[in-house]
Design goal:
Helix content is 82%, strand content 0%. The chain has four helices and no strands.
């Protein structure tokens, strides 16, 4: 995260803050959706979209799309009782790896650009 450009650092910091904030507000209620985590994920989505609009890099748009799917999973659990919380947690974990892959790609692309600029 620290080796990337400004957009990679900001997206990485926002995602790290999302993860830490989710740990702080998580309630161990197996029957009800967690509105605290939803609020944190919505804020993170807004930050990702803002960064995407400012930097105009494709990987930030893809990371925003993965985050939007995570938020949509929260909403699906709240709307339809047939969607279980286990499904939500698996979806959150799966799409989070997509966000991490986008951050890794953004860091790699910035590192590559910096390397070519020096030579």
């Amino acid at each position: 995260m620290w080796r990337g450009d400004r957009s990679a650092r900001w997206v990485g910091a926002a995602f790290l803050a999302d993860w830490l904030g989710s740990l702080l507000v998580y309630r161990r209620d197996p029957y009800n959706a967690d509105y605290g985590i939803l609020a944190i994920d919505v804020v993170t989505l807004v930050v990702f979209v803002w960064i995407s609009m400012r930097t105009r890099r494709i990987w930030t748009i893809v990371a925003s799309a993965f985050m939007a799917i995570i938020v949509a999973s929260h909403v699906a659990v709240m709307i339809d009782l047939r969607v279980t919380l286990g499904t939500l947690f698996i979806g959150m974990a799966m799409w989070s790896y997509g966000v991490l892959a986008c951050i890794a790609f953004g860091t790699w692309a910035a590192w590559r650009e910096q390397g070519h600029a020096r030579s």
